Prior knowledge:
By secondary structure, the protein is an all-alpha fold. It is built from nine helices and no strands. It has helices at residues 5-75, 82-88, 94-110, 114-125, 132-146, 152-159, 170-183, 187-199, 205-217.
Amino acid sequence: MALTPQNSEAFMREVDEAVRQDQLLTFWERFGRWIVALVLLGLAAFAGWLYWQHHSTTASQAVSEDMDKVLTASAGGGTPDPKQLEALTNASQPGFRASALLVKAGDAARKGDNEAAIAAYRAIANDGSLDQPYRDLGLIRQTTLEFESLKPQQVVDRLKPLAVEGAPWFGSAGELVAIAYMKMRKPDLAGPLFAAMAKDSNVPQSIRSRARQMAGLLDVDAVETPAEPAQQ
């Protein structure tokens, strides 16, 4: 008995469906275990990433809390916990590590151990793994402790690149360079540098005040000129 067109189409759809099911079953039998393995591996990797994120965040928070305790103790004139400070000097986060190294060097200086402090600051200045502002600060503090034993030209050679307007440590470096110029009997170089520091709003107020006084003694104008009102 011949199939009508409608029955023929229905029969072909059933055949196609059966073929697709058979192909799917064959595919699953051949590759099903691999697919399951890949899915499980992906889930494990995702779980590992979530754990790492949580662990990193928790570790960073713990290091931050330790750093806060160390800085608080140091700022208050006390002595930071030695073990805590030593651990922070080996922290994986460069910022925390650099801050801890500076605290450790400063603690040695406060205790009068200038030799240890100078060596620590020198190590910071020469540590290529630290960001440049930390290294520059290490060099400035090293030079401050060594100032009396250095020739004025040595101070200038070290710090002149940092004693420029706009540099992060312009005030600290500029003051040492200007004093070195004074010791070299070069008031023509010291005066303008003192005046520049006195007029720079980014320089700490204590340094600006001293610079203004020194510029005045050298007859250099260090008074900021008020900005003219805008034309209406």
